[in-house]
Write a structure and sequence with these properties.
The complex is a heterodimer of chains A (90) and B (246). Chain A has 90 residues and is α+β, with helices and mostly antiparallel strands. Helix content of chain A is 42%, strand content 17%. With 246 residues, chain B is mainly beta. In chain B, 6% of the residues lie in helices and 37% in strands. In chain B, β14 and β15 form a beta hairpin. Chain B is globular and about 45 Å long. The chains are: A alpha+beta (90), B mainly beta (246).
């Protein structure tokens, strides 16, 4: 399956984005679009990492903000290996 | 209260898994009537839709996922013309807070197709009972009594398998309970498994910490809260093999 992987060091921005997408998509608690920052996976540098299916990033609300976020450098698109590195082995 | 005869009627296949013992959990990827797209229990109609709630078929417990991005998808016409559940290998899972206590013994069956490149895929985890795939091995960890058993070299990436775990509740080394594609498949066991958390909610496709992601498909999973006889195991395996064209 096709997925995209992202990383951000700004937990406050991540939460702002999460809540904004929840509002756009009509999610109400406890339903949310992505894991809250408090439980989201993090890499060794304590940056939040996120995996989404390709379709997720193509939904209008996400597609509208993603280019600017990537251009700003606040959110970085990473490779799958970098995402996986956030998880230890058995 | 007597059980309604309607509840014990044979299924369309002529076989009812509930007739063989105490069926504790039954996930059937082909049964779209058990899948719901939101917490309000709207029946899932769209192909490739997110499964927010799966009302499992043994006792009607809800297996849920409140984070939309972490919901498995129902994929149509994947195996033998039937739909299955797809877990993305990154964060998808379903959990049931209603299924919390450890099983004293169990017999679990799963039809799956999993890729473990870079991940360790959980089939299920419930407290101190953990069944997972790591590389080419299918492994069961348990505590109380503690132990592990593994079937190394038994499974490969991106292929379909039907597998059976029949654990009597015995201590490590006293039984070798796994079968793959209808044959016994156990190549190791021991006593040093450390599964520290008892009585945690059942999770399909990951563990509570979110770092044991399953990447692939689950077509069907049945878990009995008892060790079944060889004859009963053969019946369930035959049902799964025929249904899923294995």
């Amino acid at each position: 399956m096709s997925q995209r992987f992202f990383r951000t060091a700004d937990a406050a921005l991540y939460e702002q984005l999460r809540l904004g997408l929840d509002a756009a998509w009509g999610h109400t608690q406890p339903t949310t679009c992505i894991d809250p920052a408090s439980v989201a996976p993090r890499d060794a540098s304590d940056r939040i990492v996120l995996a989404v299916r390709q379709e997720f990033s193509e939904f209008p609300a996400a597609a509208a903000i993603l280019p600017d976020l990537l251009a700003s450098g606040q959110v970085v698109e990473i490779g799958e290996a970098e995402y996986r590195a956030a998880f230890a082995g058995e | 209260m007597a059980m309604s005869p309607r509840l014990l009627r044979p299924l369309a296949t002529g076989f009812n898994p509930k007739s063989l013992g105490t069926l504790a959990l039954w996930l059937d990827g082909a049964d779209r009537s058990r899948m719901f797209s939101d917490d309000a229990a709207t029946t899932l109609s769209a192909d490739d839709g997110q499964v927010a709630v799966y009302k499992e078929k043994a006792n009607g417990y809800n297996l849920t996922q409140t984070t939309a991005n972490n919901r498995p998808l129902v994929r149509s016409n994947i195996k033998n013309g039937r739909s299955v559940l797809e877990f993305d290998g990154s964060n998808d899972s379903l959990a049931s807070p209603s299924l919390v206590e450890d099983w004293a013994a169990l017999t679990a069956f799963a039809v799956f197709n999993m890729d473990t490149t870079g991940v360790i895929g959980r089939l299920f985890e419930r407290g101190q009972r953990i069944w997972f795939r790591n590389s080419d091995a299918l492994t069961f960890y348990y505590s109380g009594p503690s132990g592990w058993t593994t079937a190394a070299g038994s499974v490969t990436n991106n292929n379909w398998f039907y597998t059976t775990l029949n654990w009597t509740g015995a201590a490590a080394g006293t039984d070798s309970p796994q079968r793959v594609n209808g044959s016994a498949s156990g190549s190791g066991s021991g006593a040093n498994a450390v599964v520290s958390v008892a009585n945690q909610p059942a999770i399909i496709g990951n563990r509570a910490a979110g770092d044991r992601q399953m990447d692939g498909y689950i077509a069907e999973m049945l878990i009995y809260s008892q060790s079944l006889s060889s004859a009963a195991v053969a019946k369930v395996e035959g049902y799964l093999k025929t249904k899923w064209g294995l």
